[in-house]
Amino acid sequence: MSRPGNRFGMPYDFSSEWVLCPPVERPQLPRCGGNSALLHADRKRWTIPRRRPEPYRPHRVATPGIEVSVSMHWYEDDGFWVDFADVMFSEARRRATADLIERSPLLDFPAGTRVLDLCCGPGLYVVPLARRGCAVTGVDLSPAMLERARAACAAAGVDARLVRGDMLTHVEPETYDVVLNVFTSFGYFAREEDNLRVLRNAYDSLVPGGRLLIDMMGKEVLAGWIGRPQVVEAGDAYVVQRDTILDDWTRLRTDWTLVRGGIAREASITSALYSAAELRALFHRAGFTDVEAYGDFDKVPYDNHAKRLIVRGTRPAAAGARAGQ
Questions:
Q1: 293: alpha, beta or left, given left = phi > 0 and alpha = psi -120 to 50?
Q2: Alpha-carbon span 158 to 127, nearest angstrom
Q3: Backbone dihedral angles phi then psi of residue 156, each to the nearest 5 degrees
Q4: Class of the 1-58+71-325 domain?
Q5: Cα–Cα dist 34/19, whole Å
Q6: Residue 11 has pLDDT above 80, yes or no
Q7: Quick check: 187 and 246 in contact, CB under 8 A?
Q8: Contact residues for 227 (Cβ-Cβ < 8 A; gap 6+)
Q9: What are the extents of the domains in the chain?
Q10: DSSP per-residue letters across 228-295
Q11: Higher pLDDT, 280 or 80
């Protein structure tokens, strides 16, 4: 049976963090003040919290003289990342990522490789790559995640360059041998041209012959398990995740409800969906050549057994215009 995975990371083992609610046992979630009540879950039963859940409210710090826009996108809200970080970037995931980097042929970079981790989060890739001897730069929009990454580097005794930046605008011309974008951190933007721009920024940041690797949940993988509510255990908290396909399979909305101490917070995140063929085509439009798709980090084919969609492309070594132009 194919195992589902969180949109931000690798597939989970059912015996550890994920509890799958079988179709015949799906609870009917009651409505509470216009918001779905969160159901506590263990492996045997579901119970409704005694207190009314409080809806998730983005953290916006008021600054004198500055009007805070109510149209803030979910990925711009640092409070979202703080509230859900323990679920998205758990200790188990940190260990699994370090192990993955040790064994994956797609991540077998020699010491001295200049690596850009675009949307680095709390540094789950930054630390083990820096420990290997790579010259790593991590870029992220979230100050809170960058602070976690700095703390992780300090605890591990490794050096890495950590920069606050927006992947829509971040370019360092011909600086890196490898650009990574992992944990489904691609497709955040509603306009396809903006997502293409991210690829072009990565292209421009690579030296000729450098490679971009994107790791995400492919459309074909999602089709195998979409619609089944899932519960993630995170210490003293639970998160209920519900996924909804939008706009003829072009976008995915994930609704999360976090409950801790009887208080619930809610968040919805939306991103673009890509099949392997669609993402490969976007790579070609950005100018990449030798574009390959894989079904996991062990370099298996992207087929009906795929667990992830991993696409890798190369900036041509020859000088001149982009290959896609």
A1: beta
A2: 7
A3: -85, -10
A4: alpha beta
A5: 26
A6: no
A7: no
A8: 243
A9: 1-58+71-325
A10: --EEEEETTEEEEEEEEEETTTTEEEEEEEEEETTEEEEEEEEEE---HHHHHHHHHHHT-EEEEEES
A11: 280
Binning pLDDT at 50, 70 and 90, where does residue 101 land?
very high
CB 126 within 8 A of CB 183: no
Q: Reply yes or no on whether the pLDDT at 224 is more than 60.
A: yes
Instruction: Tell me the C-alpha distance between 121 and 220, whole Å.
Output: 26
CA atoms of 160 and 126, how far apart (whole Å): 7
Q: What phi and psi, each to the nearest 5 degrees, are found at residue 52? A: -60, 130
Strands 161-164 and 135-140, by their bridges, are: parallel
What is the average per-residue pLDDT within 279-285?
Answer: 98
Task: Quickly state the pLDDT bin for 75 (edges 50, 70, 90).
Answer: low
Q: Report the share of the chain in percent with pLDDT over 90.
A: 54
Report the predicted TM-score, pTM, of the whole model to 2 decimal places: 0.76
